[in-house]
Amino acid sequence: MSVKSLEELRKLREEAKGKLTMRKDGEGDYIELMVGMATCGIAAGARTTLSTLLDEIQNKNIENVKIVQVGCLGYCHSEPIVQINEPGKEPVIYGNVDEKRAREIINKHIINHELIDDAIIIETYKKP
Amino acid sequence: MDTVRSHIMVCGGTGCISSDSDKLITLFKEKLSSAGYDKEVKVISTGCFGFCGQGPIVKIHPDNVFYVQVKLDDVAEIVEEHIIKGRVVNRLLYEEPFYKRKIQSTSKMDFYKKQYRIALRNCGVINPEEIEEYIAFDGYEALGKVLIEMSPKDVSNILKDAGLRGRGGGGFPTGLKWEYTAKSPGNEKYIICNADEGDPGAFMDRSVLEGDPHSIIEAMAIGGYSTGANTGIVYIRAEYPLAIKRLNIAINQAREFGFLGKDIFGSGFDFDISVKLGAGAFVCGEETALIHSVEGKRGEPTKKPPFPSEMGYLGKPTTVNNVETFANVCPIILKGSEWFSSIGTETSKGTKVFALAGNVNNVGLVEVPMGTTLREIIYDIGGGIVGGKAFKAVQTGGPSGGVITADDLDTPIDYESLKNIGSMMGSGGMIIMDETSCMVNIAKFYLDFSQDESCGKCTPCRVGVKRMYEILERITEGEGTSEDLEKLELLANMIKLSSLCGLGQTAPNPVLSTLNYFYDEYKEHVENHYCRAGECKSLIKYSIDANNCIGCTACARVCPVNCITGKPKEVHIIDQSKCISCGACFDACKFDAVIKP
Questions:
Q1: CA B116 to CA B437: how far, in whole Å?
Q2: Would you list the domain boundaries of chain B?
Q3: Contact B40 A54 (CB under 8 A)
Q4: Complex ipTM, two decimals?
């Protein structure tokens, strides 16, 4: 293949960029999805949650979301846990996130900015 | 479906590979696939992160965690803890030498805080063997912009306005160089990338080629367009096998994507690059010698003028630029001359890459804005002197430069200021010496290099440098006379004025600058047969301090020539006529009783 114009190059760049968004360092305007992946989380199916979130992000072509796996968040009773950190907002923590709810989080919370009330564990926790 | 959630970036620069980072990559892949994570976690070999002293480096995205000194045994733990459970492996984080705090992300490390990366922008960030990654980080945008929107003259003008000067050490304005070649009559012109990096301790050009080869290819094509050349040649030493491999991969990918070859970006401009391997002679970094070597002739310099821009490769107008110079071109095209000229000092714009080496804590590759002081580089970025010893001097410019003493540590670095204090910018080698370094010995080390690398064409350099070396050898062996010191200075100035090329003209610099700043040390060597740093073996005579010696016999037992006598629990004595100054007794004594002069 041969690139013959700046438009073609820029199209290529957009495609390539999609795969590399995670390499952007620093805070920026990224929404961070933290998936609890301690023993309790893994036992409760956090692996499926994580891969479903990734899959949905890929499907919907969302760019400003970073998925980070973290250790135990302390809510072992409600694993798998997903915490959402949006810049300028207080973190929201969802519990019992199975495959269905993971897709819901992306579609409702991330895309439509709606909270999924019955899944929220706590939203008053302040980030240190 | 590509659902990669994490990238493990393992440094694939020569420095880290020499401590097994290539095996780390294989092991990471093995562990990930046996854990069933190989589809969602990708292992990527990158270019140099610069923090070579802490290598091998492993950086994990998107968590932005930076692991240092990762050994093969640590891989399983990183996979099990970090990748599977999301817990950072604290043990492998970088520890700040002063506060002893563990630091997770590079942006908080002193080593990276004061750096400003233009030439090294993609090193450690992209996989150098994937052109898509280079494109994702604005790759080939500058080439497209130049070919479609700019005239050749616009290109040299923007570089002139930006104030970009040759990073190989000479500091000649790059835009002007390009303009000269463009103005020279002829249809057949060439552009050469000088990757014959030869200063002892310098490795920035290698790192750029290993970590970001496309940036050089793109800049060479831009240079070709601006100067009217359709052929580019990279002259690189054969002892850089990894850089050569990655460069060749990159050239082939660029051809595949149409960034090299015929009718690039549909503009009608043709350009291609070939790679010429050099045998690693220092003199071939001099542009006329380099051109002869590319032609297949002996790598010997010729006098200038004629300059290569008039009569270079095959007698045609040729531009020769250093790797780091090229690495600065694309950002200038994309961000503009004003952006670039806002960085740096009055006469020297932009940044400079330095290879920190010697007795400094953070050995590695750093890029700082011009005008940064040596103190900031050595103490803030470099983390100070190893073992808390006192700083003595720093050598910049390699065998062509000179030493800079503690008095000048606050000099802001640029081409002119370094020249004023008797050194030079050079290609960016920076060797830091502490109080245990003997300055006469340092001068001897560099002269040994220069007399070895002298091509032999002109007498002052071939014979003169050799004679200077012999004098220094005499002095370090305690056989020098004060007459030798006078001769040394006379000879140095003579060689400087009468040599044919840069190698000979600058070879006496280490001698002249150490004579200037450390004359006392020379005098001590000659008059008192004394080396205060204790480095010149023939001048050291060890002795035993009767007050501290408890008669443990440790020294006598390690002495290879049995020149230490004494009974247990009695003070020992060294027979200085037999002593070979090996220092074994000094290391063995636990009571500070052996005195090193």
A1: 31
A2: 6-113, 131-340, 351-434, 439-528, 540-595
A3: yes
A4: 0.80
